[in-house]
């Protein structure tokens, strides 16, 4: 079964747009998918502007220039062995990307976000996050410093059902692109009041043992045959420990799970996953588990 059939690389004309396009080419060649390269010319902010012939003429000129520039970029960067479809649209980059993805039935959107200096470096781009929030299929967010040749993928797990399904999807990617899989579970130790009669050392030891036991049980239920993988157990603040692991292991790609539209709110995706999505210095592969169709929810109602 083919993992990816149609890829959209949503790019601008910056240097990072070239990075996104290169990643899209690599994924296309590795998966024999169909590549669509999209550039969106931002629309004017006032609806009345469409009534002004001069302004309409400017927008048409921008669209034509963008189409020429996009074709030149494709000719320069893409080899003859890769078939590419180019598309230029005018409007909201976020909305037009989703419209186009739905039109061609894309199953992966590849977008970029550049690292910036100062506090803005902590934030995921508005367009990238909006697409991640609303596209029902996987979204790949390419960071500017990700190496071209990826060898590993990290999946932080919290032992939940969604986490299990996310790992199952990540396993497919690891197999398809020959990536080593790292499964990381971070146990956040609860606070034990000083007046507790329970020994803090005994309490931590018992809880640690239980956490490792549950993690092992989680691993044993995964289809890890013919997968190169390692499991890692750490204690502490989940976001801090995942960030530290990324730095220590020089991880360039991390997979996170989401159930789909509006599910990137802290309540539904989880504040930990949302923090990682926005702040992690890696490229992010946002996966949509199979239970996104909600058949499991309908079944649970039928049983009651």
Key features of this structure:
304 residues, 21% strand, alpha/beta, Rossmann fold, single chain, elongated, 2 domains, 3-stranded parallel β-sheet, 43% helix, disordered C terminus
If you had to describe this structure to a student in words, what would you say it looks like?
By secondary structure, the chain is α/β, with parallel strands linked by helices. The protein has two domains: 1-145, Rossmann fold, CATH 3.40.50.620; 149-304, HUPs (Rossmann fold, 3-Layer(aba) Sandwich), CATH 3.40.50. Helix content is 43%, strand content 21%. The chain has nine helices and ten strands. The strands form two sheets. Strands 3-2-1-4-5-10-9 form a seven-stranded mixed β-sheet, sandwiched between helices. Strands 6-7-8 form a three-stranded parallel β-sheet, with helices on both faces. Strand 9 (253-257), helix 8 and strand 10 form a beta-alpha-beta unit. Helix 3 (93-104) packs parallel to helix 4 (126-134). The longest helix is centred in the first third of the chain and has 25 residues, at 53-77. It starts with 5 loop residues before the first strand and ends with a helix. The model is unreliable at 117-123, 260-269 and 292-304 (pLDDT under 50).
């Amino acid at each position: 079964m083919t993992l990816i059939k149609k890829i959209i690389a949503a790019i601008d004309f910056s240097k990072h747009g070239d990075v996104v396009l290169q990643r899209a080419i690599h994924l296309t060649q590795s998966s024999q998918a169909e590549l669509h390269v999209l550039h969106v010319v931002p629309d004017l902010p006032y609806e009345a502007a469409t009534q002004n012939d001069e302004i309409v003429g400017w927008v048409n000129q921008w669209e034509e220039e963008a189409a020429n520039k996009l074709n030149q970029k494709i000719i320069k960067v893409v080899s003859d062995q890769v078939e590419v479809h180019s598309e230029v649209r005018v409007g909201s980059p976020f909305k037009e990307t989703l419209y186009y993805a739905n039109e061609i039935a894309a199953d992966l959107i590849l977008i970029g976000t550049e690292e910036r200096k100062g506090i803005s470096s902590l934030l995921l781009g508005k367009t990238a996050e909006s697409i991640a929030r609303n596209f029902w299929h996987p979204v790949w967010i390419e960071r500017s410093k990700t190496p071209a040749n990826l060898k590993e993928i990290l999946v932080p797990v919290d032992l939940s059902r969604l986490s299990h399904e996310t790992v199952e999807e990540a396993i497919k990617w690891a197999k398809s692109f020959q990536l080593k899989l790292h499964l990381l579970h971070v146990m956040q130790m609860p606070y034990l009041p000083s007046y507790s009669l329970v020994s803090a050392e005994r309490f931590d030891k018992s809880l640690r043992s239980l956490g490792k036991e549950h993690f092992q049980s989680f691993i044993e239920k995964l289809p890890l045959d013919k997968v190169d993988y390692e499991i890692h157990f750490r204690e502490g603040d989940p976001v801090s420990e995942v960030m530290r692991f990324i730095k220590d292991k020089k991880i360039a790609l991390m997979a996170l799970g989401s159930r789909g539209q509006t599910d990137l709110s802290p309540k539904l995706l989880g504040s930990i996953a949302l923090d990682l999505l926005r702040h992690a210095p890696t490229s992010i592969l946002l996966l949509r588990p199979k239970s996104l169709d909600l058949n499991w929810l309908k079944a649970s109602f039928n049983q009651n």
